[in-house]
Design brief:
This protein is mainly alpha-helical. About 60% of the residues lie in helices and about 10% in strands. It has six helices and three strands, in the order E-E-H-E-H-H-H-H-H. The mean pLDDT is about 75.
Length: about 120
Amino acid sequence: MKIILKQDVKTIGKKDEIHEVSDGYARNFLFPRNLAAPADAAALNQARTKSEAREHHAAEALAELEGSVAVDVLENLDADVAAQIIAEMEPDDAADAIAIALCHARSATSLLARAEKQAER
């Protein structure tokens, strides 16, 4: 059965990802805990639209920052240091954080997750 994750699930994947799981696992574990939803045509279309919008905004943010000194410096930083910098940013600067993560050639979601953990400390 195809599902779309509503939250990060350690054994399957991250939020908004589409995965194939067994029917029983979906019905008995994921759906009752509101961790996933069935991937019908409408839900698949919505997930693709979200993904495309996220990629578009990240590309726009990267284009705005391209060539700036800050990006040149951040490209050479360790991921944990970059995550600390992102954690200290204002919430409105999320697009900048994604652009920085893309400059690092790392997953934007994993870098932002690190930043959230740093912010909690």
